[in-house]
Design brief:
Helices cover 46% and strands 14% of the residues. By secondary structure, it is α/β, with parallel strands linked by helices. Helix 6 links the parallel strand 3 (122-127) and strand 4. It binds pyridoxal-5'-phosphate. The site of pyridoxal-5'-phosphate (PLP) has 13 residues, from helix 5.
Length: 398
């Protein structure tokens, strides 16, 4: 029976990775894959993670199961990290958390929860959004629709169009938002825009599902969670999917969690019982190692400080690269305004060139990015900035 299955097309990012690997030109530059890179092009294990890992391993005396909702200490520490110490939802015991395999696992658990609560629920995602949001949300049967978001003309958010669309949604629609460092565009909402959005969510009784995968990599730990903190203080129900892949560099350890803020501790307990049941039906329990490391880091003042420093190092490197890249582009392509790249945040931006130009960059200059011209800022470095800017100038000229 399984022979009937036809081969699926290769995932575009994986296809791009193999093309890059096969390219033998020493000038090649990978701006495709969405992982952090240092100036040498490596994705290193953070020193705080290494130290925490040694402590975790030396203390571990069993491999027995942890718990259905994962590591309780990790869940609590992550709720405080995202919401901020002393957040009113924490004080009111309105937060319930479950550890999950990465941000993806958390997103899927949230989607499954929404579907259990309201089988005909529609979830609205930004245009564009991270490609994997689509299968994660719709794979469990949620209907997916889109709202306007990115404005290629300004490199910012089409806020009026976004509000206009959300203002027409039926009550109890779910809306997926990016907390900060929007993937793939790098265009984020300002604090004033989050406040305006909050009024709309209240007025239209919408359910926010906020994805935070880059806390600390945009402007700062508190700033990058501004919208989440505001919404969770002011709205009766919010779901927040958290990934530790990028800000702790724990990608393969599959570390993340889902927080659900509800109206009362009683409602929260009911929600958690459903989340545990859903997780049990998919993978039973989350992997432990990454969560144990994060728990150790967040609970040890010296390690926490070291991690915050390392995180600031990654953030500053990317902010610096954004400014430097804009400078180089201004020199090599004075006819075009790329300043939006410096105004954006996080790991990604759209370069704003068309698909044939993306292909020319790849084939003629060995510069790799996805067809929509999304670039991973961390793939740039002092050594290749000038080369990439010149390559962009050449394909724009042709
Ligand atoms: C917007 C966004 N959400 C969630 C994730 C989840 O990542 P992971 O499942 O690796 O933690 C990512 C990773 O690229 C992302 O970009």
């Amino acid at each position: 029976m399984l022979e009937r299955l036809e081969r699926l097309p290769t995932d575009p990012i994986l296809g791009l990775m193999s093309l890059y690997r096969a390219d033998t030109d020493p000038r090649k530059v990978d701006l495709g894959v969405g992982v952090y890179r240092d100036d040498q092009g490596r994705t290193p294990v953070l020193s705080s993670v290494r130290r925490a890992e040694q402590t975790v391993l030396s203390r571990q005396d069993t491999k027995s199961y942890v718990a259905a909702a994962g590591n309780a200490g990790f869940n609590q520490a992550m709720a405080r990290l995202v919401l901020g110490e002393g957040h009113p939802a924490l004080a009111a015991d309105r937060v319930r958390s479950i550890q999950a395999p990465g941000g993806c696992g958390s997103l899927r658990l949230g989607a499954e929860l929404f579907r259990s609560a309201q089988p005909d629920m529609v979830i609205h995602v930004s245009t564009p959004t991270w490609a994997n949001h689509v299968p994660l949300m719709s794979g469990c049967g949620l209907k997916l629709e889109r709202y306007p978001y990115y404005d290629p003309a300004s490199g910012g958010v089409k806020f009026d169009a976004m509000l206009g669309t959300l203002d027409r949604l039926p009550a109890r629609s779910a809306v997926l938002l990016h907390a900060s460092c929007h993937n793939p565009t790098g265009a984020d909402l300002s604090e004033a825009q989050w406040r305006e959005l909050l009024d709309l969510f209240k007025r239209r009784t919408l359910l926010p599902f906020i994805d935070i995968a880059y806390q600390g990599l945009g402007t700062g730990l508190a700033e990058d969670a501004f919208g989440i903190r505001l919404f969770c203080a002011e709205l009766p129900e919010v779901a927040v999917a958290v990934s530790c892949s990028k800000n702790f560099g724990l990608y393969r350890e599959r570390t993340g969690c889902l927080h659900v803020i509800s109206e009362s501790p009683k409602a929260g307990d009911a929600i958690l019982s459903h989340l545990v049941r859903i997780a049990r039906s998919i993978y039973s329990m989350p992997p432990d190692h990454g969560a144990a490391i994060v728990h150790e880091i967040l609970g040890d003042p010296a390690l926490r400080e070291q991690w915050i420093d390392e995180l600031a190092g990654m953030r500053k490197r990317m902010t610096g690269l954004r400014h430097e890249f804009v400078k180089q582009l201004a020199r090599s392509c004075p006819q075009r305004d790329f300043r939006f790249i410096a105004a954006q945040r996080g790991m990604f931006s759209f370069l704003g060139v068309d698909t044939p130009q993306v292909h020319a960059l790849r084939e003629q200059h060995h510069v790799y990015m996805t067809d929509d011209s999304r670039i991973n800022i961390a793939g740039l470095s002092a050594d290749n900035l000038d080369y990439v800017a010149q390559a962009v100038a050449q394909v724009l000229r042709n």
